[in-house]
Amino acid sequence: MLPQSLLSAGLTTNQAPFIEQSRLRGDLYIEQPYELYSEQNHDAWRTLYARIQPRWERYGNRHFLKGIENLRLPVERVPRLEEVNKFLRPLTGFQARAVSGYVPAFVFFDCLRRKEFPTTITIRHPDQLDYLPEPDIFHDVAGHVPMHTDPAFAAALVRFGDCAHAAAETAAAIRDEGERVRRLTSRIKALARFFWFTVEFGLMLEGGRLCACGSGLLSSHGELEHAIESSGVRRIPLQLELVVNQSFEIDRYQPLLFVVDSFDHLFAQVDRLVAWMREGKLDNVATGEPAVNERDLKSFLDHIRDAV
Known about the structure:
Elements: H1 4-7, H2 17-24, H3 39-59, H4 62-71, H5 81-92, E1 95-99, H6 105-113, E2 116-120, H7 137-144, H8 151-171, H9 177-200, E3 203-206, E4 209-212, H10 215-218, H11 221-229, E5 234-237, H12 240-244, E6 256-260, H13 263-279, H14 294-307
Parallel strand pairs: 1-2, 3-6, 5-6
Antiparallel strand pairs: 3-4
Helix pairs in contact: 3-11, 6-8, 8-9, 8-13, 8-14, 9-13, 9-14
């Protein structure tokens, strides 16, 4: 039985004692304490779902729309991850796994390699429906997970995990610690940029129609329409060299987006990313955002040390 203080607090982003306690204990992987969701939390989900659904139908890709249908996501309440996984796992082997917060980069990509998607369980406050600088369950489950029902897209995610392993394995051979850190930093930056411009904010052509495949777009009521309709957005075909050297900012609508032809095309480009990682072609990418924080770098260095 959970304490009454937790039961009355809800699972609102940045206001959830259950999450704070999990972090203090060092628990990254957690259970989804469904009884903690407040009526306000369920109302936030209802509002987010109801207002974005017409834009999904207009701007979402057909694989995403099929995924929404296959997952049978509830409209009126926050979904239970066990219910989501019941429909997801038989399709591609992927499953959503609850986490207490930020997942360091290597750990995140290694989860994808194992077909586990680290999933936030809190939900944004009703006053922050339009923008939240960190993921919540609506972004993760309604934005990301429907794409995981498609076998080709799921395979590309697993390949991202292979790419992270390639970055670590080739860095392990670098004896000079300073040079190892410098090259790893560049590789992590390249991987983060590619993931951002494809999985998070990618566009795709579908029968000559431009639509969204990135989860950052598919979970944003405002930016989803802006990405497709605005004359202020540059949309160019995905080119690996451009993507890994392109910086981005997270706190505004994206002014530059890349377009893939299909999920098979995306997989082929991730495959090239792995090859470039092993060939050292990502050791000197352009400076700029995103900054590589100490936890992300440490997660790669820890894997290298543990593998020795």
